[in-house]
Design goal:
heterodimer; A: alpha+beta; Mth169, Chain: A; three-stranded antiparallel sheet; B: alpha/beta; Rossmann fold; nine-stranded mixed sheet; 6 helices; globular
Chain lengths: 86, 227
């Protein structure tokens, strides 16, 4: 069993109005030293796979096909082998 | 014209489309479930507005995997006319049938207003009933209608004349004021404004009828051939 932790966020070239609102509000409450805000999504998957490489290839395909819109979003992930259950 | 109106869980403009195309314009319009796997025999497929699959993950991101989408891709690849409105437009971009993405409105507000639009290209199967540069007013009702494409894609859209409708007073931040565009082949159109909600004088406007009348015109040959 493998566990994938996946992060999806907007590409830097894409304006994210929600992040802008957060940044502007932080500035208003005194945290005006915050230079950038990026809002994203976090996913955890557990999956069975023959080996680490196969798990990574599958997670990459899932990100491309569904979890990220590659027009506007970038993703990165880690895949770790889980200890076998009792 | 025989039109299929797709219906996903969470679609809410499918009945409006059936009414506009079937009752108002007297065409054959059939509701087709998102679980269907065959779209043969239809001249046009209409992908309605709403909140398919609750807009979970992203608008259209789950709908693009519905069984009917495989049939829709085959239908479009064979040159069939496909019109996606609002959430239908979002589904078509997610499915890769149209370029770009619909992002959150820059105001972060859901906007429900009549919007004046410019008919930027009337030489398409979806806009030939309008005059070039005609100004029409259609309702918009969306939170995520802010059209984005990378600069190279945008430039290509403009060179090819793929932008069919533009906002006169850009309400949502769409690049190049894009309200509706076709694919490169010209047989798939997505638009955020709702022509089916401007289809009866009694309800305030008939400015949207031209979209469907254009399709009736475009499919006349096909209908005769089929008979």
């Amino acid at each position: 069993m493998f566990k994938a932790e996946i992060y999806v966020s907007y590409k830097p070239s894409v304006l994210d109005p929600k992040a802008e609102v957060i940044k502007n509000t932080l500035a208003r409450i005194g945290d005006d030293n915050v230079a950038t805000v990026s809002v994203g999504k976090y996913f955890e998957l557990t999956l069975t796979a023959p080996d680490q490489a196969a798990a990574e290839a599958q997670v990459d395909r899932i990100c491309d096909a569904m979890l990220a819109n590659v027009n506007t979003e970038a993703y990165h992930f880690t895949v770790k082998a889980l200890e076998a259950a009792q | 014209m025989k039109a299929a109106v797709l219906s996903f869980p969470g679609s809410n403009c499918d009945d409006d489309l059936l009414h506009a195309v079937g009752t108002v314009l007297g065409q054959t319009a059939v509701k087709v479930s998102s679980q269907a796997t065959d779209l043969t025999g239809y001249d046009v497929v209409l992908v309605p507005g709403g909140f398919s699959y609750g807009d979970y993950l992203r608008s259209g991101a789950i709908a693009k995997f519905a069984p009917v989408m495989t049939a829709l891709k085959a239908f479009a690849a064979a040159g069939g006319y496909v019109l996606g409105i609002c959430n239908g437009f979002q589904i078509l971009t997610e499915a890769g049938l149209l370029p770009g993405t619909l992002q959150w409105n820059t105001s972060l507000q859901f906007i429900c207003e009549p919007e004046p639009l410019l008919v930027a290209n009337h030489q398409t199967a979806f806009s030939q009933a309008y005059a070039q540069d005609q100004i029409i007013t259609l309702p918009i009702a969306h939170g995520e209608g802010n059209y984005y494409a990378d600069p190279a894609t945008l430039a290509q859209l403009e060179v090819n004349g793929q932008v069919v409708f533009r906002y006169l007073h850009n309400p949502n931040g769409s690049l190049n004021d894009i309200a509706g565009l076709t694919n490169e082949a010209g047989n798939v159109l997505g638009m955020m404004p709702h022509p089916e909600r401007a289809a009866e004088a009694l309800l305030g406007s008939v400015d949207g009828l031209g979209v469907f009348q254009s399709l009736i015109q475009a499919t006349k040959g096909a209908a005769i051939h089929a008979n």
